Amino acid sequence: VTIRLLSPPQASVSIDVVADTNQLDAEPASLTFDAENWAQPQTIAISALADGLVEDDPHFVTVELDVSSTDPFYDQTPLSPIEVTIADNDVASVDIAGPAVGVPGQSATFEATTSNGTAAYEWEAFMNGNPVADGSDPIFSFTPAGSGNYVVRVVVTDDAGQKQSSFVDYTVLGDIANSPFTGDIIWLAAEGITKGCNPPLNDMFCPDNKLTRGQMAAFLVRFFGLTDPGDGDAFIDDDNSIFERDIDILAEAGITGGCNPPESTLYCPDELINRGQMAGFLARALSLTDDGGGNLFVDDDVWIFESDIDKLATAGITRGCNPPV
Question: Of 119, 122, 194, 189, which is closest to residue 152 (Cα–Cα)?
Answer without folding.
Answer: 122
